[in-house]
Amino acid sequence: MIPYTLFCSSDLIFVPINMKEPPFPFSTPAFMASLQGPCDPPFQERFSSLFSPATTIQLSLKNDEQCELPLIDLWRLECGDEEGRKACIAEIGKASSEWGFFQVVNHGINTQLLQAIKEEQRRLFHSPFEKKVKSKVFNESYRWGNPTATSLDQFSWSEAFHVPLSKLGEDDGCFEEEFKTLRVVMQKVAEAMTELARILAGVLAENLGCPATCFLENCSESTCFLRLNRYPPCPFFPAAFGLMPHTDSDFLTILHQDQVGGLQLMKDSKWVSVKPNPDALIVNIGDLFQAWSNDVYKSVEHKVMANGKVERYSMAYFLCPSYESIIGSCKEPSRYKKFTFEEFRRQVQEDVKRTGYKVGLARFLI
């Protein structure tokens, strides 16, 4: 097994994956010529050792199966029809158990607001690379590529701003004038996403007959994140990751993506491509919710494949607790011993140092 490294939910997450396809050589003249043009970020220049003529990569190059995630209309939660509300809650619970992913419509977040954040992040990412690196915007939250990669199959062809919500409320001069509107739009998006995340977390708890207060009270703007993602056109398409296989180390994630596609998830022991839906937001379960639900809900491995012609944008909201928060199962007998979020992160780091990959929740099984 080969370790993969990813920044996600403020953690370094390492997830192993089995390689089954034959090596794909990057040594043709056409391929080498494609590396000569300018690229922002400068992946080839800064990670030149990964892009040699002898480079080979083993990835699953064929993935013809496309899926439509379970689609759930959240209007039924507030429609006044108790039977409709119960059916909606049951559907969310079933999707979280069988898929670990679902999509929602009538989610209450204004479509104009989502379009505004896409336009703002496009303007932000199209700033010159050196400006993005040196900018103080969002307290130096800019990330790109993977500084720990030792081979191309450990590399993510993407860039991101991973922003604590607490930084959005600070007006301490860290925002250049041209990014003032970005901050305002992100504040509005964060407020809307936080409300939706709390509703969904409450529904998931109710589906198990448990109160949600035991974990929601520990999730605030000081612990949650917004992540703005850009995936530039990649000459390694279709054999490169935009984002490496991973699970999320939070309670749940809400994703808004464009129509380019590329998101894949593990379903029934194989990768399937998620068909984009322009009207829906995607929700997925994180490691902490799997532990809290006693494995009723599943934190599922997922990835993004690079695109060879067009750039891709997405925005993710991560519902995270404080580092001191105790994560315990909602019902007994528990499959997991109690642990804090900080202990979970520390164990991940220790496993990575010792074995090269993330073990995750398995370390906390009783």
TrEMBL record:
Q: Which GO terms describe its molecular function?
A: gibberellin 2-beta-dioxygenase activity; metal ion binding
Checking Gene3D superfamilies in the record gives: B-lactam Antibiotic, Isopenicillin N Synthase, Chain
Q: What is its EC number?
A: 1.14.11.13
Reaction(s) catalysed (UniProt annotation): gibberellin A1 + 2-oxoglutarate + O2 = gibberellin A8 + succinate + CO2
Q: Which UniProt keywords apply?
A: Dioxygenase, Iron, Metal-binding, Oxidoreductase
Domain Fe2OG dioxygenase residue range list:
220-321
Instruction: Name the Pfam families for this protein.
Output: 2OG-FeII_Oxy, DIOX_N
The reply to whether Oxidoreductase figures as a keyword in the UniProt entry is: yes
Q: Which GO terms describe its biological process?
A: gibberellin metabolic process
Ribonucleoprotein in keyword set: no
Which cofactor(s) are needed, names only?
L-ascorbate
Q: Which InterPro entries match?
A: DIOX_N, IPNS-like_FE2OG_OXY, IPNS-like_sf, Iron_ascorbate_oxido_reductase, Oxoglu/Fe-dep_dioxygenase_dom
Identify its protein family: Belongs to the iron/ascorbate-dependent oxidoreductase family. GA2OX subfamily.
UniProt-listed PANTHER family:
2-OXOGLUTARATE (2OG) AND FE(II)-DEPENDENT OXYGENASE SUPERFAMILY PROTEIN-RELATED
Query: Could you tell me what this protein is called?
Result: gibberellin 2beta-dioxygenase
Q: Which organism does this record belong to?
A: Dendrobium catenatum
State the gene name recorded for this protein: GA2OX8
